[in-house]
Each structure stands twice: as structure tokens, then as C-alpha cells.
Design brief:
By secondary structure, this protein is α/β, with parallel strands linked by helices. It contains 13 helices and 10 strands. It is globular.
């Protein structure tokens, strides 16, 4: 073979190899999501009381987060509820949490430390307010609680916030017209059953297992919270505007309701973080919440109500940039 022919063949081989490398590079660019790196590090998720929906939801969400963000170490911390969750978040003691919209609005209204740093990730599901009494109780309305021993939730809970407001709307002084017992859902059912309480308030997703279990071993009744109460709450303005009239479906607690719907008050739950949270981590967290809805909803029924179409509405908080990125990418 002549030298010129060898030189031409070598050039052709080099050109073909270069073209192959270009093709392989383009294929790798197309297959590998260079624009989305998996976040790493640690995060603390503040939940709620051990028997409450927040904690049960958090345990199942932790598994979903571990699958979608394997390089992130996740710590769950139980809490008294919404108010304590927000305080932890603002103080940097937690990275993500769940809180009711009224508790968030109150935290902001009161100008508490770090309020301006709070950001929303998703609107989750609604909490329904329960006022629970023994079936034989003479209590037919919130106003009938006068002189009674009432479980009002732990001091740092959203239950305490709405219970005090409902009693005030009904013309009661929560500090003097009842005997308030600051307890959580982990102990209030047992106290009612043993006669240590005449009634207790609870605010949670439907159904709350602890309430359902109580209804199956002890005769209880749900006291109606009529729409007029919501009107009185709204009349005070501010953070009370986040309450709405709602109805507990007849089958929420069959034994307690006797197949009859019960009017009540509802308020949205929000997934909350701060402006300190890493955008990639927040995007991944928000994605895991939406993607795990059906799986978690099989065990924690309120999670079934998490909806991509409404999750973006996190008032009274602005969306975190990471959450905004997720919604843009997930937009149909």
C-alpha cells in the first residue's frame, strides 16, 4: 500500500472515531440529568405528637424521602404541634415542618422571631376540629362547656390555638369559664374514658386513628360546630380568616356519629421551611411529598387529599424557590 493511501486511511479512521465520541457524548448528555443533582446532607423534620396524624405522616414520608434522596440523612422530631413546629423552624432547630395556616398567620401577625424567613412548600390536607364528649354528656354546643373540665391541647399545638378561639367566639373565657387541661391526643382519649375530662378538643385529618379507636371502645359523640361560629371567628379578622365551615362525612367515625354528618371547622395544613433551606433539597422534598401521596394515603388517609393542583397555594407564606422549581417542572 502506498504511503499516501495509508495517510488517508488513518485520517478517515480518526475522523470516524471523533464522530463516534461526539455521538456518545450527545447520548450521555441526553440520558444523564446533569441539570438535576441529587441533594445530600442532613435535615430535621419536626412533626407532632406521637399519636397524631403529623407524626404518622412523617414516619411514612421519611421512607419516601429516603428513597428519592438517598444521600440525605433525615431526623424526625416529635412536637406539641403547629406552634412549637414554627418556633423550631424559625430558630433553626428544624428544616421542614407541618403547621396549620392559622398558626402560621398568627406567628407572622405577632412578629415572632424568624417569621419573615418562613416559606411554604405545599398545601397538604385540611384539619377538622373535633369536640368530643361522652355520648351521655349534656354538652350540645361549645357554649355548654362552661364549668366543665376540658382537654384543650398542648400549649404549643394548633389545637390549643383553635380551641381557645372557638370558646371565645362562643362567649366563654378559656382561662376562667372552664378548667383547661393542657394535654395532647396521646392522653386525652384515656382521660375522657376514665372520667378525668368532660370533653376534649382535637384538630386533625379524617379519620384520626386515636379518635376512631376511642369510639370503638367507649361511647362518644361529636359536638356540632355550627357555621355561625366560623362567622364569629372571621369577624375578628387576621389569622382567623383561614378557618372555614366544613362537614365531617357521616362515615368518618361511624360509631360516634351514627351515620350522621357533623358540621365543624376546618383549616389547611402547610408544609413549611425557611429561606435558609437549600433549593435542591426543597425541590426534592416537595417532589417526594407529591409523588408519595397515594402510597402514604393507604395508611394515613388525609394524605390522599394532597393535590398537585392546589399544593402550590401556600398562603399566608410565599413559595420557597425550590418548591417553585418543582411546580414548574411538574406543570402539565
Amino acid at each position: 500500500m502506498f504511503p499516501g493511501t495509508l495517510h488517508t486511511s488513518r485520517r478517515r479512521a480518526l475522523a470516524a472515531a471523533a464522530a463516534l465520541l461526539v455521538v456518545l457524548g450527545l447520548l450521555a448528555w441526553w440520558l444523564v440529568p446533569f441539570g438535576r443533582t441529587s441533594p445530600s446532607g442532613e435535615l430535621t423534620f419536626s412533626t407532632g405528637s406521637r399519636s397524631g396524624v403529623y407524626q404518622r405522616y412523617g414516619v411514612l414520608l421519611e421512607k419516601a424521602l429516603a428513597e428519592s434522596m438517598p444521600d440525605v440523612d433525615i431526623e424526625l422530631r416529635t412536637s406539641e404541634g403547629s406552634q412549637q413546629n414554627l418556633a423550631r423552624l424559625a430558630a433553626g432547630e428544624a428544616d421542614f415542618t407541618i403547621a396549620t395556616a392559622d398558626a402560621v398567620a398568627t406567628y407572622k401577625r405577632d412578629g415572632l422571631p424568624g417569621a419573615e424567613r418562613l416559606r411554604g412548600c405545599a398545601r397538604l390536607y385540611d384539619d377538622y376540629v373535633h369536640l368530643i364528649v361522652p355520648r351521655s354528656s349534656p354538652v350540645k354546643s361549645v357554649a355548654d362547656l362552661r364549668g366543665k373540665v376540658v382537654g384543650v391541647g398542648q400549649p404549643g399545638s394548633g389545637v390549643r390555638l383553635v380551641a381557645d378561639r372557638l370558646m371565645t367566639a362562643a362567649g366563654l373565657d378559656p382561662r376562667h369559664d372552664i378548667t383547661p387541661v393542657p394535654a395532647g391526643i396521646d392522653s386525652m382519649p384515656g382521660r375522657l374514658e376514665s372520667g378525668g375530662l368532660d370533653a376534649f378538643f382535637w384538630s386533625g385529618g379524617l379519620p384520626t386513628n386515636t379518635v376512631r379507636e376511642l369510639s370503638e371502645r367507649f361511647e362518644i359523640r361529636l359536638v356540632p360546630l355550627e357555621p355561625e361560629l366560623v362567622g364569629k371567628l372571621h369577624a375578628t379578622g387576621g389569622s382567623t380568616s383561614y378557618y372555614r365551615s366544613a362537614v365531617m362525612p357521616a362515615d368518618a367515625y361511624l360509631k360516634a356519629q351514627g351515620g350522621v354528618p357533623v358540621p365543624t371547622v376546618a383549616v389547611a395544613n402547610l408544609l413549611v421551611t425557611t429561606d435558609r433551606a437549600d433549593p435542591a433539597l426543597t425541590e426534592g422534598f416537595t417532589r417526594a411529598v407529591i409523588d408519595s401521596r397515594d402510597r402514604i394515603g393507604k395508611t394515613v388517609h388525609p394524605a390522599q387529599l394532597v393535590d398537585l393542583r392546589t399544593a402550590v397555594y401556600t398562603e399566608p407564606l410565599p413559595l420557597h424557590e425550590g418548591a417553585r422549581r418543582y411546580y414548574r417542572s411538574a406543570k402539565p
